[in-house]
């Protein structure tokens, strides 16, 4: 039986950065999937776009999708100490794509009805709660594919830049 705990020498990525990176990728794919009119075709476009952005792009860009690049994160396979192969990435992101589309469906069609909205968005919330509760911040999709999201110095540092802009703006407003 393989050990599901990552080695202790990998630093944990801050959960808020992971949320921001996910939201950036989620909104980008959701925007593209809005072009499809019917829910089934919207699911096909969303799933395909998600797999392209979060599997093929990650394999090509050394572990970073658009959101992970913007927030200086990288996904790795802690056992082999490198980028996960396509099968592991597909398992990881396939589970997230289904949960993400359920959230899209809940936002678009279930928002007027609070109960259906809550039910449809609950897989993403459960995944987030597991990541917050775990000491190594492994979410359900990380456990499924035995992957780990760690910080890196390669990226755009969008959260740091926004904090600087807000501080600069608040300083100018106070003067």
From TrEMBL:
The keyword Membrane applies. Its main location: membrane. InterPro entries: RDD. Pfam families: RDD (PF06271). Keywords: Membrane, Transmembrane, Transmembrane helix. It is found in: Membrane. It is a multi-pass membrane protein. The keyword Membrane applies. The chain crosses the membrane at residues 20-37. Residues 13-146 form the RDD domain. GO terms for cellular component: membrane. This is RDD domain containing protein. It comes from Rubidibacter lacunae KORDI 51-2.
């Amino acid at each position: 039986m393989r050990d599901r705990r990552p080695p202790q020498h990998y630093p944990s990525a801050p959960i808020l950065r992971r949320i921001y990176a996910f939201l950036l990728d989620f909104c980008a794919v959701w925007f593209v999937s809005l072009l499809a009119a019917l829910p089934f075709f919207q699911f096909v476009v969303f799933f395909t776009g998600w797999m392209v952005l979060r599997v093929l792009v990650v394999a090509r860009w050394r572990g970073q999708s658009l959101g992970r690049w913007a927030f200086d994160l990288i996904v790795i396979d802690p056992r082999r100490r490198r980028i996960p192969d396509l099968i592991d990435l597909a398992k990881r992101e396939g589970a997230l794509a289904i949960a993400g589309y359920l959230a899209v469906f809940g936002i678009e069609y279930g928002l007027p009805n609070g109960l259906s909205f809550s039910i449809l968005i609950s897989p993403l919330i459960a995944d987030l709660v597991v990541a917050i509760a775990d000491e190594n911040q492994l979410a359900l999709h990380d456990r499924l594919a035995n992957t780990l999201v760690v910080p890196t110095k390669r990226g755009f540092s969008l959260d740091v830049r926004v904090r600087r802009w807000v501080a600069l703006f608040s300083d100018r407003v106070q003067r």
